[in-house]
Fold:
Amino acid sequence: MTARIALVVLAFVAVACAQRGAPPRTVESLELERYLGTWYEIASFPTWFQRDCVATQATYSLRDDGQLGVANACRDKTLDGAWEGVEGVAWPVVPGDFTKLKVQFFWPIRGDYWVLALDPDYRWALVGHPNREYLWVLSRTRTLDDAVYASIVKQASAEGYDVARLRRTPQPAE
Structure:
């Protein structure tokens, strides 16, 4: 009986994986030194952990242990709201390949952070989760040209993300 249950479970998992499709593609490579620093959230899929956040930004730094420091901050509800933040750590899934990271803000919870698209000059980035439940459009500036944004959204759609879920993040004027 246990073997039958195992086979049913395996069949269910296989069907679920087939329905989800192949994981999204990431950029071929990423120069870590160029990626470090502050990025502003232009848009994202709404998440419970960013509820009430505006003016969201993330700052990445290299730690002494070779991992990445991740400092996320946002204002509460309005552009004049109080700053809130959380610090975490990230590391490459494959040593030396920073296109796919694991991120941890609270032990033991870890998340995937995949760089799906990246401007050649590191002016913007598209970051997602392989299950396509999370997506972020990031920029080095608080605003992004509408044509550039539309191009990024098109890339996300081509990778199977439901871009209708994207919500623009309010940012203060530069």
User: Anything to note?
Assistant: The longest strand covers residues 83-94. The mean pLDDT is 89. The beta strands are 37-44, 53-62, 68-76, 83-94, 97-106, 109-118, 124-128, 135-139, 167-168. Helices lie at 2-20, 32-35, 146-158.
